[in-house]
Amino acid sequence: MAVTETPPETVETASAAAPSAPHPQPGGLAAVLGSGDHKVIGRLYIVAALLLGLPVLGLGLAFGVEGFEPETLDVFSSDVAYQLFTLLRVGTLFLLAFPLIIGVAMVVVPLQVGSRSIAFPRAAAASFWGWFLGSILLIASYAINGGPGGGSANGVNLWIAAMGLIVASVLLAAVCLATTVLALRTDGLSLERTPLFAWSVAIASIMWVFTLPVLGGMLVLMYVDHRHGGALALGGSAGIYPALAWIFRNPQIYVLAVPVLGFAADVFATASGSRQRMRGLVQGAIGVFGAVSFGAFLAIPSTDALDSLLVVVLGIAAVVPVLVVAGGALDAVRGSGGLKAGPGVAYAAAGILMLLVGTLAGAIGSIPGVLEVPEGSSASSNIFFLGITHAVVVAAVIAALGGITWWASKVGRGPAASSVGLVAPLLLLVGGIVMTVPDFVSGIVGDGVETQGDYAGGIAAANVVVAIGVAIVALGLLVAAVSLLPLLRRPDDEVPADPWGGQTLEWLAPSPPPVGNFEGELAVVASAEPLYDLREEK
Amino acid sequence: MSDAAALALPPAAPPARPRVLLVGTALAAVATLMAFAGVIGLYLAERASVLSQGGTWLPEGTSIPLTPGGIAMATMLLSAVTMWWAVDAVGRNDRPAAYLALALTMMFGLAVINAISFLYTQMELPVASVPGVFIYTITGGFIATLVAAMAYAAVMTFRTLGGEYHGRDREGLVAAALFWYANIAVFAVIWYAIFVTK
Fold first, then answer.
1. Which of A13, A221, A299 sits opposite B137 (nearest CB)?
2. Tens digit of each residue's pLDDT (9 = 90 or more) over A242-264
3. Which end of chain B is more exposed for a tag (fewer CB within 10 A), N or C?
4. How many other C-beta atoms can be found within 10 angstroms of the C-beta atom of residue B3?
5. What separation in angstroms does the CA of B120 have from each of A27, A194, A536, B149?
6. Do B24 and A175 touch (CB under 8 A)?
7. Residue A5 included in any domain
């Protein structure tokens, strides 16, 4: 091609005039596997997260059973207990909670902001397939005696590489989601008018972009180290997990739960049938919660003094936004004619209560001197922090399942089963509290995290209670999964586009939404509740 | 429609509001900066810990000469100018100048990779050592992101050549430039933390 002074600006015009052959639309499996449609990608994330994540929770249950009689009940041999413990913790976060949240967000966020697609659809699809491949490789690495504490060098290398792939994929999804909210909003939908769930996903995604690369960088460092003799302590097989444990600690773990606040605020505002009076405050609170969840500084081990000060400030500060969002929800209910109760509302209430438990515990645990720390161990090894992690992860899972239920007609083919759906959030909330409170109690008396099968010490009764809590959570997940089964079959009647009298643009899309999401052009948005505006015009 | 009408410039379209590529690139640049911030932070913490215990950081026989790193830093700074020139030239629809500027930027990128590779041969640092793991990971990671930035800039160059970007819409090139500048920022920190203060 010759270089000329004139830019070929007419290329588009000229090519537009040329008739193009119609592209055959793929169908069946090809339409799923090769799709860049955000709804298909979101559904893939949700289904895969449930398939991969639920067995991981079964592992948690087995650990709970072992806790009844650690020295006599040998559910796990001491050889593999530590590896499986790390699988449990990594799995609940990266195989269940993160992909569930991402899946719901992938489906809902473009609809909420009035976009016809997600930003970078091929990258979004790549994020799913990368995460899925990484998850399979992660599980495979354990199968060949890899993972933290593993005996196979290749297995450990595979674990690090798989984690790297998972983190990169989550980051890719975060970039797609944040860009969708920041750059693909429909006309008139300014940032302050952005639906609160989409807003919370944008905040969460930006925080993932700010913090997860630190984890990614550490994984590269570990891989190089482990491949070349493990000179660094963090690259040794047993040193891997402690070096990465900061991602499970508060405030970092809160990055997972930012969408819980947006989901709860959205659902309560819609179910109360009124405009959110405290909207600005709630939106600001979600932003603040995202900001205080920045915990990447915990990755640097030698900043103890800074850690302490920051952890205290961030730990206490994290409670305030949760209380503000809860207050906003109560205000919405009080200012309305009545609350349309349903599974969505139950999930929203359960999610925010569970998050409140986690952040309150985080605030208490962050105060110096509250927790007894065994000599020679760090404060982070106290089991109190495991309880906080579990509370936050359960809150995120509740919100994600609630999102699938609330937006069921957009995520699936029809509404979720409402009667069964009401029981699931209750079970998850009760199970979550029963599972975490004993850890808080044990932590206050100085118990550490039990990473071995045949551990001694600790409060035996607390282990039994924790096991019961895990069982209730597992039951809750099972009930939730059953309540979501109707999403898979096409209902006999036409599914209404807006079953809840919604406020935001996703309820304008047909159920299920077609490719391109909306039929016809969207009007210019004039408020944060465009569907209310439409009803008032009529 | 006559040929003349088909070749006439269409009326200026209103600038597309969604700067999708730019926003996405900005987020990717933040991710890149944070990844290096984390690893370099660990490097500094580990080095400070070793030195505070009276140890020596670099193994015996290892030295990191300042010259190749300094030249690489100067080259990166020069590439900032040529990248800015490319964006400016596209804005003025000065295509030959844009191509020249982008070609120079690519060349500077290759020169930096060459300088770091040369440094590897000079410093005789075993990878199976704590400083070795850090330094090879950080500088190797930088080379990888620099290659990505070069590929990104090259793609945007070809797109500009194909007419996708021009004076009224140079989002792709601006995005590539943004990522390039993030790389320069990263290298500036590497240069000071590793090559200067060792």
1. A221
2. 888 889 988 899 999 999 999 99
3. N
4. 7
5. 53, 50, 70, 22
6. yes
7. no
> Is B181 within 8 Å of B80 (Cβ atoms)?
yes
| Contact state of B93 with A7 under an 8 Å Cβ cutoff | yes
CA distance A359 to A364: 9
Alpha carbon distances (Å) from A338 to A274, A330, A333, A402, B80: 10, 11, 7, 21, 60
The verdict on a CB contact (< 8 Å) between B136 and A224 is yes
| Nearest-10 crossing angle of helices A98-112, A153-183 | 20
Number of domains in chain A: 1
Is A140 in contact with A158 (CB distance < 8 Å)?
A: yes
For the record, the structure tokens of A201 come out as 């996903």
Interface test with B, best of A10, A172, A224, A255 (most B CBs within 10 A): A224
Across the interface, do A179 and B27 touch by the CB < 8 Å criterion? yes
Q: A6: distance to nearest CA of chain B, Å?
A: 7
Residue A139 main-chain phi, psi, to 5 deg? -65, -40
- What letter does residue A482 receive in the DSSP assignment? H
Could you tell me if residue A206 is left (phi over 0), alpha (psi between -120 and 50 degrees) or otherwise beta?
Answer: alpha
Q: What is the CATH number of the domain that holds A217?
A: 1.20.210.10
**Could you give the angle at which helices B171-190 and B20-52 cross, rounded to 10 degrees?**
0
Q: Strand, coil or helix: what is B44?
A: helix
Residue A240 backbone class (left: φ over 0; alpha: ψ -120 to 50; beta: rest): alpha
The Cα of A187 is separated from the nearest Cα of chain B by a number of Å equal to 9
Name the closest residue on chain A to residue B7, using Cα atoms.
A10
| Per-residue CA distances from B151 to A125, A338, B147, B155, B176 (Å) | 21, 58, 6, 6, 9
Q: Are the beta carbons of B42 and A171 separated by less than 8 Å?
A: no
Q: How confident is the model over B136-158, as pLDDT tens digits?
A: 999 999 999 999 999 999 898 87
pLDDT tens-digit map of A173-220: 999 999 999 999 999 999 999 999 999 999 999 999 999 999 999 999
The Cα-based distances of A62 to A66, A78, A340, A471 in angstroms read 6, 14, 39, 10
Q: pLDDT at position A43, please?
A: 95
A123 contacts on B by Cβ (under 8 Å): 24
Reduced to 3 DSSP states, what percent helix, strand and coil does chain B have, rounded to the nearest 5?
A: 75, 0, 25
* Banded model confidence at residue A14, pLDDT cuts 50, 70, 90: very low
B198 in A contact zone (CB under 8 Å) = no
User: Which among A452, A176, A91 is positioned nearest to B27, based on CA atoms?
Assistant: A176
A3 within domain boundaries = no
Question: Residue A8's closest chain B neighbor by CA?
Answer: B163
> Is the pLDDT at A467 greater than 90, yes or no?
no
Chain A residues with CB under 8 Å of B96 CB are 3, 5
The ipTM estimated for the assembled molecules is: 0.89
Residue A12 lies in a domain: no
pLDDT at A380: 66
**CATH numbers and ranges of domains, chain B:** 20-196 (1.20.120.80)
What token pair was written down for B2?
């006559």
Residue A307 in tokens: 């850690």
Task: Determine the pLDDT at residue A70.
Answer: 63
Q: Which of B1, B18, B38 sits opposite A183 (nearest CB)?
A: B18
Write down the residue that tokens 């700067």 correspond to.
B19
Domain extent, residue A301, equals 36-537
Q: Which of A184, A190, A225 to mutate to test the interface with B (most CBs of B within 10 A)?
A: A225
